[in-house]
Amino acid sequence: MAQIMIKNVRKDFGTFTAVKSSSFTVEDGEFFMLLGPSGCGKTTTLRMMAGLELPTSGEIYIDGEEVGMKPASQRDIAFVFQMFALYPHMNVGKNISYPLISQGMPRAQVRKKVAEVAEILGISDILDRPVGGLSGGDRQRVALGRAIVRDPKAFFMDEPLGALDAEFRERMSEELRALHDRMGATTVYVTHDQLEAMQMGDKIVVMNHGVVEQFGQPQEIYDWPSTMFVASFLGSPAMNFLQFEGLVESNQSSVHMDGIAFKIPSSLEAAKGKLAFGVRPEHVRFSDSSAYRGEVLATEYLGTTQIVTVATPNGTIKARMSSAQPIQVGEIAGLEFDSRSISIFDIETGRALLSQANREVLRHG
């Protein structure tokens, strides 16, 4: 397997720029997620890494070799598509063995490798079946088998579970992660599903409008988003934003909204003007002693938890709390926020005020 480095990669289609000077590193053996909404540039980035698109500028390294202008056939990678891309006239075994046969591998060795891969994927009993009659989950396993059998340096997957229903997606995401852990494969995986990215990934790149908004471990990105876009894209429900105008000085320990002081992490950059107080729903609590109050607009029952929508002087927010807590629509409730988990954003730039140096201090205690 191999490390993959992307350095200032850009892709233009005529006057449209799909990817803008992206840089990040996929370490050897990582399960790496490219996450973002439709049209953000994640698939174009993956296709450039795979050699299916050539970059307009920048450098791409696989296992230390610069491959930016080399075609896919010269990169020793395997690609798994959303729509499986199987050969309908071949059975399962022939679909898996095709890449090896096309390379001229001896048939006895081909049979051995196909049997090994089928055992790993749990499809040994369907090798003689035509692919047309298989379930979506089994067809995806066959597509994975055809990629795995080649022992490539890296696997590139473009929303491979997107065509499956919710039950299959959950099962296959678990199987994919377990397969990755067994093989130690370097894997780059494109998805628009933030839950899938958080569940499966070792590292995540969040993209928007062709720009890498943030790059890091899932927990780091969730806890300390670098931009309002990242904060709103990760999480269900997303981070709440309460808007206010004011001044935040470096190392300030509180801010004022609606005349009330709220504690914040003291490791902040300075800012002035229109700001947003960001808080996750799970960090909102009801408290009779709080002077900051809001009206309950709605409740949504989710089994052990409920999502409560509250109108405040600075905007509507959602709180996640135990469904055992009695709450009435229309009641006026005091609100408290976990000061250790607050983010402050500059609304004009969308950027978090938490500096990278101070982010390290907070992350490590």
Keywords:
single chain; 365 residues; alpha+beta; Rossmann fold; OB fold (Dihydrolipoamide Acetyltransferase, E2P); 2 domains; 6-stranded mixed beta sheet; 5-stranded antiparallel beta sheet; 9 helices
What does this structure look like?
The protein is of the alpha+beta class and 365 residues long. It has two domains: 4-223, Rossmann fold; 228-363, OB fold (Dihydrolipoamide Acetyltransferase, E2P). It is built from nine helices and 21 strands. The chain has helices at 42-50, 92-102, 107-121, 136-148, 166-183, 194-200, 218-223, 228-233, 356-363, and strands spanning 4-13, 16-26, 31-35, 57-62, 65-66, 77-80, 154-158, 187-191, 203-208, 211-216, 240-248, 254-257, 260-263, 271-279, 284-286, 293-301, 305-312, 315-322, 332-337, 343-346, 351-352. The strands form five sheets. A six-stranded mixed sheet has the order 6-7-8-3-9-10, with helices on both faces. Strands 15-19-16-17-18 form a five-stranded antiparallel sheet, with no helix packed on it. Strands 2-1-4-5 form a four-stranded antiparallel sheet, with helices on one face. β20 (343-346) and β21 (351-352) form a beta hairpin. The longest helix has 18 residues, at 166-183. The two termini are 34 Å apart. The model has no long low-confidence stretch (mean pLDDT 89).
Explain the layout of strands and helices:
Layout: E1 4-13, E2 16-26, E3 31-35, H1 42-50, E4 57-62, E5 65-66, E6 77-80, H2 92-102, H3 107-121, H4 136-148, E7 154-158, H5 166-183, E8 187-191, H6 194-200, E9 203-208, E10 211-216, H7 218-223, H8 228-233, E11 240-248, E12 254-257, E13 260-263, E14 271-279, E15 284-286, E16 293-301, E17 305-312, E18 315-322, E19 332-337, E20 343-346, E21 351-352, H9 356-363
